[in-house]
Amino acid sequence: MFTYFRIKATLMIIALCVSAWSGLVLPISAITEAQAQPTSEAMLEADASKRVNRLSDELKSPFCPGKTLLNCTSYQAFALRKEMTEMILAGKSDEEILNALRESFGEILENPPQPWYTILVPVMPFILGALIALWMFSRWLKGSQKEDEELEESSEVSDEYQERLQALLKDED
User: Fold this and answer.
1) Whole-angstrom Cα distance, residue 36 to residue 9?
2) DSSP 8-state symbol, 110
3) What is the pLDDT at residue 9?
4) Among 54, 91, 142, 146, which is least packed, fewest CB within 10 Å?
5) Quick check: 131 pLDDT over 90?
6) Pick the CATH number of 40-105 from 3.40.50.720, 2.40.50.220, 1.10.8.640, 3.40.50.1700
7) In sequence order, which residues have a C-beta less than 8 Å from that of residue 55 and are 6 or more positions away?
8) pLDDT of residue 16
9) Dihedral (C-alpha) 70, 74, 79, 82: value to the nearest 10 degrees?
10) Alpha carbons 117 and 156: distance in angstroms, whole number
């Protein structure tokens, strides 16, 4: 079984070498040159895409309640993001785009500011888990202390029993 895969891998390597030698594969230098020189249009579109993603992440979606415009999967949200990209490529600023969106939708699309304590939400399960673990550990320690006290009390032998034990030991000798 192992030899089958070894032979198959060897044949694949030979086939790749032959195809590269015969010119069926593009030269690597041509690929790297094409990737090394991005056009100014590609750079503008990449910048526009970043700005649209940033703006879309800050805005509530009018099409998907409870989601941002970036996370909304409806066709209308896609069309609105495309329209925002066109506005950016036309040279509009972020504030101009926000004003245009406010005018066309007639509602506030901006997310309300979040209170400071919302940062505790992701870590709250860990805090609660730690508090429960501390409480259980303290209960366990108190329980073991009570058991130790009960053991000490039960191990104390009265004087009467000690005298009887001493007498029994003397009788056996």
Assistant:
1) 33
2) B
3) 62
4) 91
5) yes
6) 1.10.8.640
7) 69, 84, 94, 97, 98
8) 58
9) 30
10) 56
Tokens of 145: 């202390």
Please state, rounded to an integer, the average pLDDT across all residues of the chain: 77
User: Of the candidates 143, 122, 125, 145, which has an alpha carbon nearest to the alpha carbon of residue 133?
Assistant: 125
How far is it, in rounded angstroms, from Cα 41 to Cα 89? Answer: 10
CA angle 16, 18, 23 (to 5 degrees): 95
Burial code of 136-154, b = ≥16 C-beta within 10 A, e = fewer? Answer: eeeeeeeeeeeeeeeeeee
* 3-class DSSP assignment, residue 173: coil
pLDDT tens for 5-41 read: 566 666 667 765 556 555 544 454 445 455 555 567 7
pTM over 0.85: no
48, 88 in Cβ contact below 8 A? yes
Q: How close are the terminal C-alpha atoms of the chain, in Å?
A: 82
Q: What is the pLDDT of residues 136-162, one digit of tens each?
A: 998 888 877 777 676 666 666 667 777
CA 97, CA 87: separation in Å to the nearest integer? 7
